[in-house]
Amino acid sequence: MLTILVIVVLSYFVGSIPTSIIVSRVLRGIDIRDYGSGNAGGTNVFRVLGWKPGVFVMAFDAFKGFAATYWISQIALGGTAVSPEVAQLIAGCSAIFGHIWTVFAGFRGGKGVGTAAGMLLALYPVALLICVAVFAIVLFITRIVSVSSMTAAITLPIVLSIFRYCLGKPVATSLYYFSFFAAGLIVFTHRSNIKRLLNGTENRFGKKKTS
User: Fold this and answer.
1) Is the pTM of this model over 0.85?
2) pLDDT tens by residue, 143-164
3) How many domains does the chain have?
4) What is the SS3 assignment for 17?
5) What's the count of helices (H) and strands (E) in the chain, helices before strands?
6) Disulfide: which of 20, 23, 35, 143 matches 204 by Cβ 3.0-4.6 Å?
7) Is residue 20 in a domain?
8) pLDDT tens string 45-93
9) Which of 21, 77, 81, 78 has its CA nearest to residue 53?
């Protein structure tokens, strides 16, 4: 129990590192949440501060998910009652929750896409590559990041289902069921984007101004 508690706490705090807020304050002396879409994520940094800070934020947010899943999950304090796979899921989820509800910024963080991608990189890289490809294709067609993110998230359980039931590839049961939760969580964090999509006011990639 102590091991799991330590993994949860450490992973949450790693995920809580408010990358976009730190970068925006260092580079411009602003809170990124007061500009653009108001979201503390890499896409908003990309739009407001430029592509270099945006790429850095996206990469570091992904690293948070990877670090928690790949390294922090391996902490062992007298053993644990869960399997290594479940420990990884717990660590990764904690990092995602930390990113979305960061304790360092009034529990107002990003949408969790980048951190979830880093987590998936540690768990099932092939599935991540497919999701990234779907993201890129949808972004090329629609030029809407939110649609691309949600589509990629929904793609994950579909891909794992195909791997598991059609191709006979090994997919851990815990990861398989988690993929449905992850897809739902990403859609949930994009609820404001969904409203703008329905209203026809959602931004397209490449525009500086966001609603």
Assistant:
1) yes
2) 999 999 999 999 999 999 999 9
3) 1
4) coil
5) 10, 0
6) 143
7) yes
8) 999 999 999 999 999 999 999 999 999 999 977 666 789 999 999 999 9
9) 21
